[in-house]
Design a protein that fits this description.
Structural class: alpha/beta
Shape: globular
Number of domains: 2
Order of helices and strands: EEHEEEEHEEHEHEEHEHEEEHE
Helix content: 10-25%
Distance between the termini: 34 Å
Number of helices: 7
Strand order of the largest sheet: 4-3-7-1-2-6-5
Oligomer: single chain
Radius of gyration: 18 Å
Strand content: 35-45%
CATH superfamily of the largest domain: Nucleotide-binding domain of ferredoxin-NADP reductase (FNR) module
Length: 273
């Protein structure tokens, strides 16, 4: 069951002029979270902003084997993220979680390919640690507008994650969108000598990217799961602000609430059209 805590800010690490990682003392939530789940947060104690906002849990913080908190990866783009960018040690952030359906992990000999677009990196630190603990070979395809917006590369590499980088301006890795190297490697994995490779693709980022990743995975006969980024008013299914279309067996679709039926969905289950 989710719990609601007033979490003290342990630290605020600014990664750039817009991105930061906030560490919160919320062991009650961090100790129960599974990769892909999220929290609803609101900085400060007043009524502005009135509603909380959803954030994937980025890391689970441990010290000497004891869970002490969690982190959130945030990009300053609005009122709430602006407030979160400015928090300092000792501030209080209301934090409700863990919420939502997590990723379904894979074990060896299957491989895991994670595809992140920008701040879509957020659910992949916890996922990567869980996969590595299972011995699953893991690759991170990570795309952003520029090399200055590619973060935590050393963190992933230190855990044995293979990195495939791309940037729209070509300043780091391959020039272009992250789906370009993804398709190339999916095609290679489908070649004669690797046709039996069991690969599951996990993705998080802008919805057009998620649609493209899901279609590529299906094209090459691979399973995919995507974590959708929908506006959520409550995070617990009460407000119906986060509905998303899911395919019916008969070819139509119906709507579900992504906060409780997701945010993780099988890519093939979503009605992208």
């Amino acid at each position: 069951m989710p719990v609601d805590v007033e979490a003290r800010v342990i630290r605020n690490t600014r990664l750039s002029s817009d991105y930061n990682v906030i560490a919160l003392a919320a062991p009650e939530i961090a100790g129960a979270v599974e990769p892909g789940q999220f929290v609803m947060v609101k900085p400060g104690r007043g009524t502005d902003p009135l509603l909380r906002r959803p954030f994937s849990v980025f890391e689970v913080l441990r010290r000497e084997g004891r869970v002490e908190g969690l982190t959130l990866l945030s990009k300053r783009i609005g009122a709430v993220t602006g407030l979160l960018f400015d928090v300092v040690e000792g501030d209080v952030v209301s934090c409700l979680g863990p919420l939502g359906r997590p990723f379904n992990l894979v074990d060896p000999p299957a491989e895991a390919w994670m595809v992140a677009g920008g701040v879509g990196l957020a659910p992949f630190a916890t996922l990567a640690e869980s996969l590595v603990a299972r011995g699953t070979k893991t690759t991170l395809f990570y795309g952003a507008r520029s090399g200055a917006e590619l973060f935590y590369l050393d963190w992933f590499e230190s855990r044995g994650i293979r990195l495939v980088l791309s940037t729209e301006d070509g300043s780091r890795g391959e020039r272009g969108r992250v789906t370009v190297p993804l398709e190339r490697e999916l095609r290679r994995a489908g070649s004669a000598d690797l046709e039996s490779a069991d690969i599951k693709v996990f993705a998080c980022g802008p919805e057009p990217m998620l649609e493209a990743v899901s279609q590529l995975a299906a094209k090459y006969g691979k399973r995919s799961e995507v974590s959708v980024e929908r506006v959520m008013g409550c995070g617990m299914g009460g407000c119906y602000s986060c509905v998303i279309p899911v395919r019916d067996a008969g070819g139509g679709h119906h709507y579900v609430r992504s906060c409780i039926s997701g945010p993780v969905f099988a890519g093939a289950d979503l009605a992208w059209d």
